[in-house]
UniProtKB/TrEMBL annotation:
Residues 11-230 form the Glutamine amidotransferase type-2 domain. This is Amidophosphoribosyltransferase. It comes from Lacicoccus alkaliphilus DSM 16010. It catalyses: 5-phospho-beta-D-ribosylamine + L-glutamate + diphosphate = 5-phospho-alpha-D-ribose 1-diphosphate + L-glutamine + H2O. Binds 1 [4Fe-4S] cluster per subunit. GO terms for molecular function: 4 iron, 4 sulfur cluster binding; amidophosphoribosyltransferase activity; magnesium ion binding.
Length: 472
């Protein structure tokens, strides 16, 4: 029996309507979004009369062959997806965009995020005769849409969106339209751009930079945008919105050059590093950031304290994500392969290491040990986010309570476990100040605070429920 993969999918999506190089541009855009998903990739394109798709497993360059890309070339409209899933089915059938065929027309669908009520909706649909081909929660959307009998396409889509709960950014392709929708909490990022007059959408603006498109604006919580040959239509599927953009996108997930509300993630991370400096009172000779995601925070920390920033840790660019490697021993080996200290820089020095987050503690444990072995006199850890204590149910893989070190231990116990001379986390208040300074309209910070903006009752795993009941 297939386990339903409702958890832990974080992805990158892209779509473009009405461009002679739609599929090539989609390919380039997906390449720039590769950090959002490395497990599979695909493109669905429309000729205007029918849809055609190609997808495969692994990194984009191996997922799609030259021949597959060539077959998509004549199509002027395209959507694409890179997938990162860590639980449930890791097979081709789950790689998006999905392509559904029916006598009333084709449907291409790609999603970033997690529906929290997918399991219940799916069961109800199955009991009513629906047969699912994948274990992904996105398929639920297609079934619900197919069952809508009344109204035009847009009103049907809006009705379905109102039935979904959770974090979702959808790109939905019909032969003659591209529809884009963001959930009413706006948890996952979704951006609107334009290339040579053609509208495009992407999870991050780095995709626009990669294809030479202009970044127009962030798509709003609850917004539904329809793009056709006749132009663009802006609408909302609900007025009851409550923006809660994912904090982890700023802290770790998004690429440093990607912009949110015209501010780069780099600048936000730098400011988080500055804020940490006001809370970390440690004397040191150098500050080093864990490459790549923490270099900006280390830079801000260095500017604020006057402590010189050095590249004391190097990252091997040919090692993928260590975080999702199954098994603790394999994860430790992967971190060792990925990061290595520069002895010449750290030997005899009191070092402050800045990392953006500690989840299981594997990375910091290794870093402290490696820097000390390389001759560092003292190693102080600074974390440019608050203690990460809770799992995410909205599409970012931050594991279960049992694996999250800060849900079991206080900072002093964590310091002891990772072997650092001191450990300082950014406070929740300072993190909020940084976000509000950048004009944030509201952030999700549930993995730090436990304040889940969307009810998660339906998605809590049985073992998590046990912990919750025991008050853990
Ligand atoms: P850990 O080694 O388990 O403590 O994980 C922390 C490291 O993984 C940090 O260096 C983070 O930059 C990175 N990280 C944090 N959250 C995630 C995530 N959701 N997916 C992959 N890596 C992450
Ligand atoms: Fe992002 Fe954390 Fe909220 Fe998940 S729980 S959406 S990782 S801020």
């Amino acid at each position: 029996m297939h386990e339903f993969s409702g958890l832990n999918e974080e992805c990158g999506i892209f779509g473009i309507w009405g461009h002679p190089e739609a599929s090539e541009l989609t390919y380039i855009a997906l390449h720039s979004l590769q950090h959002r998903g490395q497990e599979g990739a695909g493109i669905v394109a429309s000729s205007g009369d029918y849809l055609f798709g190609a997808r495969g497993m692994g990194l984009l360059t191996s997922a799609l062959s030259k021949e597959q890309l060539a077959s998509l070339k004549p199509f002027p409209h395209a959507i694409g997806h890179v997938r990162y899933a860590t639980t449930g089915g890791s097979e081709l059938s789950n790689v998006q965009p999905f392509l559904f065929k029916s006598h009333t027309g084709d449907l291409g669908l790609a999603q970033n995020g997690n529906l929290v009520n997918a399991m219940n909706v799916r069961r109800a649909l199955e009991d009513d005769g629906a047969i699912f081909q994948t274990t992904s929660d996105s398929e639920v959307f297609a079934h619900l849409l197919r069952r809508e009998k009344t109204g035009n396409r847009k009103s049907k889509i809006k009705k379905v969106l109102r039935q979904l709960k959770g974090a979702f950014a959808f790109v939905i392709m019909h032969e003659d339209s591209l529809t884009v929708a963001l959930d009413k909490h706006g948890v996952r990022p979704l951006m609107l751009g334009q290339k040579d007059g053609a509208y495009c959408v992407a999870s991050e603006t780095c995709a626009f930079t990669a294809i030479g498109a202009e970044y127009i604006r962030d798509i709003e919580a609850g917004e539904v945008i329809t793009i056709t040959d006749d132009g663009i239509d802006f609408d909302h599927y609900t007025e009851r919105t409550s923006p809660h953009m994912c904090s982890m996108e700023y802290i770790y997930f998004a690429r440093a050059d990607s912009e949110f509300r015209n501010t780069s993630t780099y600048r936000i991370r730098k400011e988080l590093g500055r804020a940490l400096a006001t809370e970390m009172d440690v004397e040191a000779d150098i500050v080093i950031g864990v490459p790549d995601s923490s270099l900006a925070a280390a830079n801000g920390f260095s500017e604020a304290t006057g402590i010189r920033q050095e590249q004391g840790l190097l990252k091997n660019r040919y090692v993928g994500r260590t975080f999702i490697t199954p098994g603790q021993e394999a994860r430790e080996r992967a971190v060792r392969m990925k990061l290595s200290p520069v002895r010449d820089i750290v030997e005899g020095k009191r070092v402050i290491v800045i990392d953006d987050s500690i989840v299981r503690g594997t990375t910091s444990r290794f870093i402290v040990k490696a820097l000390k072995q390389a001759g560092a006199e003292e190693v102080h850890m600074g974390v440019s986010s608050p203690p990460l204590k809770n799992p995410c149910y909205y599409g970012i893989d931050v594991s279960t309570h049992a694996e999250i070190i800060a849900s079991r231990k206080n900072p002093e116990e964590i310091r002891e476990e990772i072997g650092a001379d001191s450990l300082t986390y950014l406070s929740v208040d300072r993190m909020h100040e940084v976000y509000y300074g950048f004009g944030s309209k509201g952030q999700c910070d549930a993995c730090f605070t436990g304040n889940y903006p969307i009810d998660i009752e339906e998605t809590i795993l049985p073992q998590e429920k046990d912990l919750k009941q025991k008050g853990v």
